[in-house]
Amino acid sequence: MRMIGLVGRSGSGKTTLIASLLPALRRRGLTVSTIKHAHHGFDLDRPGKDSFVHREAGAKEVMLVSDARWALMHEVGDGPYPALEDLVARLAPVDLVLVEGFHTHRHAAIEVHRPSEGYALLWRDGSAIVAVASDESLPALAIPFLDLNDTEAIADFVLAKAELTSRFRDEVFREGSLGVSYGNRLTWRPAMSGGRHGRGGV
């Protein structure tokens, strides 16, 4: 599996970009999952529901299952904030994971930036941000610029810059069977059905 982040100020359009990237990437035959950071507490449950009763009674995890989908709720409680690597490891294997938020984590990320919002760039020299996607030109930018309205070009960049997750990096380097390695990045191979890692493998 490989992953890349999308970071930016609130209201910059990170979710909108992900929503346009997902069908573009799926058209290329890739399986894609997402992780989104929530700055405020959230709850998928409601008082009075059986699953809520389970949690209130002390269950560490509660899994809800229906014919259409299932969801696992994990209570962090007083424990440490979960590491992004641990969260990614809980996902079923896919070709690519898009991570929204987590801007302090050291994974390759594209910053979504709208100058009209009046905020400064998150990018700083030495940061893990590898490009800025914006709806206005940024002539002084020292890293690649992406047109926020050109989804296909951004999808190309995502595939070029997405990094191996730590879950699969050692295995890929050991077996040398999932692509041609360049540091901690791989070239893409066409997605194939089957295989230990599911469709597409990395």
Number of strands: 11
Instruction: Enumerate how many helices there are, as a single number.
Output: 5
Helix and strand string, N-terminal first?
EHEHEEHEEEEHEHEE
Oligomer: single chain
What is the CA-atom radius of gyration, in angstroms? 19 Å
Beta-strand percentage?
A: 15-25%
Helix content: 10-25%
Question: Mean pLDDT, rounded to whole units?
Answer: 76
Net shape: globular
Q: What kind of sheet is the major sheet?
A: 7 strands, mixed
For the record, give the distance between the C-alpha atoms at the N and C termini, rounded to a whole number: 4 Å
Low-confidence stretches: 169-202
Secondary structure category: alpha/beta
Task: Give a short summary of the structure.
The protein is of the alpha/beta class and 202 residues long. It has five helices and eleven strands, in the order E-H-E-H-E-E-H-E-E-E-E-H-E-H-E-E.
